[in-house]
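Allow me, if you will, to draw on your knowledge of protein folds for a short while. The matter concerns a single protein, recorded as an amino acid sequence and a row of backbone structure tokens. Could you please explain, in whatever detail you think fit, how the structure tokens follow from the sequence? I remain grateful for any guidance, and I place the record below:

…
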Amino acid sequence: MKRISDLNFLCVFIALLAAWVAGSGSVSAQAPDQVGLFASVFSNSGVADRNAAEVRRRSGWPGWIETHIEPAVAWATADDPDRSVIVAVWNPFGTTSGPMQPDQFLEARDAGLDWLTDGYVDAWLSFKARHPNVRVMMYVGKPSADPTTMGLIRRGRLDEAIARRDASFAPLVAVSDLIGLDALSASPSGGLDAWTVRWLHEQGVEVVGELNPGVGQWQSDLPSTMLYKNLARMHSPDRREERWLLNVPTWDEKAWPLYAAPGRWLILNTHSGKWNDPDDMKRMVRGSVEHGCGVLIQPSPRVMQKPIGWYFEAGKDE
């Protein structure tokens, strides 16, 4: 079984060990031994192509990986070719609306989106062969979010339900070192989600589950599942008002305890534009590390203008 402990961290997807070296007149740094990169196929192109038209525009998965993932990995390893990297891809088979879908591969296949489903496994296995120090994580909805599967279970057709679950996850299992399950913290300790966590571990895949404070109670008997919280949005301490963290700089230390804890992975994405600014991204990386968390950085072109080590250095921003 592949174990996330092999990377000596619990934080993505990476437990980050921030290292820096003080120099005369400026502060120099290098990134940790392990770093995480966040990616998404989402292109806001509409439900007909599951908002994944960027994969089609790049002539399928090989082109998308070449355009979006290869430059990010090169950036993350520029100062250390042996650095371990996790590449985390959200909704690889696109999304329509509502909860994240665990059966998105089946939905895309049945919709005839061959450019999204065909070549997926071969492209990612080829990528992993080129990059032995990269671990791949695919993030989808939890199994109980699929109404078709749950309907089969309610009608007592358990074998059909499990077969659909297995078919939904088969391409993910084929390429993934880790699989992320959305909204897992609200799942009970028994039932389809718990069974799936155990089943994925039996396949040699580590599981990453979303922890959403205040929504559901984490069931501690789910086996060795890591937790993360997407910091794209945070709530005020009394949870009455949603706020963007970076818009409220004096509020940080009150908000961090709701989400940051040693061993959690914090996702710093740039879709909102809030952290597309390198100084803001650096502030979030440093705050995450100082609270014992790992980070998944979304490496936009603007973020990659700075070397990765710059985001982990202490001291005044340059």
Summary: The chain is about 30% helix and 20% strand.
